[in-house]
């Protein structure tokens, strides 16, 4: 490859030459109260020494070199066919495809000796602009914008003299770095993945998981665009103008790269373009594609609630086991809506009541036992789709018939690279409630060495190649920010820093989705059945709207899956999309899912626009006002030189009085959301003052834990032990000692990132039970000693030295990995019985260790220990030991409450687990040999195209991460 030079021409790639809107009824007084919180917090609580604004620094960058960030594997997410073939044959990487992977990986072993001066060994300098000596290329797609890339990482720094030019440049840069990914995800958002990328089993499973959650027609998508233009005022009009400019820039690169033959090679491999004649087309991008993309992002990370039918079934099983009253009490103890022992983000005792269990619930629509049927989705299968009907969606693609296309020469090396799908089949299963990730650690200035706040935060968005996020800097009229955006919707920075402030988010998952039971009817007045396609809406027998998506595929070089097709079908009602059918009190109903953000995926653009606007965000109050315009369920965090702040966003519906949001509700006006209008799915929403929020608490932590007291959990995972405890304990200790620095806070995060939650938080109680009497069996004695030694050493899953690919205390780790599922089953299943055990484990999986392929995030995904029975085990064993337990389980389960019997059950399963060989505990997969413990845990960047990357040491850590400490302010 020729040397890198300053570029001012088009026709080459940038990395080297190649071949919420407010839609609610707001309470004015309460909104003013919320504002007052931030005014008082940002004013009265700010250190006096920070009162004088500093003189404007170069580039209006008030971080003065103290902002850092990182996003593996690299900025460049496009590869031409030549580069893909070079990678597959010779192992070469395109420029800047993987140069952030090494620093990211190295922190797992380098953090113990970390200093502030050494931070950028593991992170990038996130300062505005590019120093003149570090400029690698300058592209001018229009006269009013430049895209400057740095030599080290090739990150685009977009600077426009007009608003249109700035956003055009953002779209152009997105095409340079992520065009294939953007195209892939717009088709996912439209439920058309198999037609675009091939019929692999995982592709079928993924589109079947996602499309029913957000089934839209083209008219539906356009209506969201019009809604913003017409009802969001000047900011809404500007947002849609920005979106159009972004799309124009993306299309400009699409056209130029196609004509210049430097477009992503995946278009050839999937049969879209002929590699010899260049015949074929990359379909133009549209604004409605951005709405489809936004629905994908929201579905993955910003939703919450749902699952009311499954919750009802597990409650009915508890009542069947124990009787109605006792069964309900026991079920609620496992549900843990407001566990008094769970870790919180707001720790001063302030309560924010939301979605609580009413004392006397009304309107519940519980199904008759045995009557629930899941709604059929797929019809009219042909070809290989018929084989898929009998296969497991997450199974290897090889289970489907193959018809490899004829290839020759080097193309044989890439044949079938998508046979197992381009994305995991279960990527959307459970939604954000099961995949909510990301963490944040913030310390107020009064507890830091400098007197300025310090923050280490970022989103865990999984690991992909290329990454779903794209790093960039945007500078133009009304926009000044650096950070990341989801590819394809990157007209604004969504997580990053402004001139004198930074912000980030974690998935919140509060309940913004409900299930209604609509009575079924027949238009002629005959008796309805569960399969009827009419329902009663406010007294009128109304036809359901049938939405369909027909997909067909043929084999390509990339995906050899034989030709096939099918039709997906859902029914939509005024109350949402049908998910199940059942009977309630003997009468047929359809259960439908109503999400407050449905038809409003685009509304949050207003909040992001404000976060990028230095005139809108000048302090913690401006930050909160921006976050209030974001409809998705997120925890937002903010830091500048004076303040840290927190605000929980989300379109929280105002429910009818005494409705229990955990269960299905009758679809009647008395139980609807207040002010509900199905035309655009609008309703009253809780005012800002009722959302969890705070300014200048001593510290904040978040790892998708509970936000505040009485802000009820929407799922079963927020109990006495949560992975947030790994952060909370460490940050609390730092704050108590004082003098917190960027390095010390990063160390706290990094240590938590390699720590086994079960070993740190629950193993001490387990060992107390085991040591309640002398252990006489030599094999058990050895196993217990190994576990104790690991616990004493810090409970870490970490290499013996950088690059060793071998864990210290590897036997203890193997034992606990094998033991935990057996331990939990032995402790709980006898007391629960098979039926209730099955129902509760369906609600909350027993384990989510890093090597677990059965967890919500799948294997090699980094994120771990969010969902599991660690809190149940902890409470139960403390009860067995006679210790104090706040919010105990309804009964004591291990050994039926007898210490000796519990000990026997634990020892018996420990003996079995200790004898399980590593090859059985870690059975191997496409990335790892059986028995390779380190590799089983390791993070693998899931290839979405033709470029792959090496595995890296497991870290339970944000994908994109910032470390910031602003020393000055405007």
Number of helices: 25
Unreliable parts: 1-11, 18-54, 393-398
The largest sheet is:
10 strands, mixed
> What is the overall silhouette?
globular
Rounded to an integer, what's the Rg over CA atoms? 27 Å
The helix-and-strand class reads alpha+beta
Strand content: 15-25%
End-to-end C-alpha gap: 44 Å
Helix content: 25-40%
Arrangement of strands in the largest sheet: 3-4-5-12-13-14-15-23-24-26
The beta-strand count equals 30
> What would the average pLDDT be, to the nearest integer?
92
Structure description:
- This protein has 970 residues and is of the alpha+beta class.
- It has 25 helices and 30 strands.
- The strands form five sheets. Strands 3-4-5-12-13-14-15-23-24-26 form a ten-stranded mixed β-sheet. Strands 7, 8, 16, 17, 18, 19, 20, 21, 22 and 25 form a ten-stranded mixed β-sheet that branches. A six-stranded antiparallel β-sheet has the order 2-1-30-10-9-27, with helices on one face.
Task: Please give a handful of descriptors for the protein shown.
single chain; 970 residues; alpha+beta; ten-stranded mixed sheet; 25 helices; 33% helix; disordered N terminus
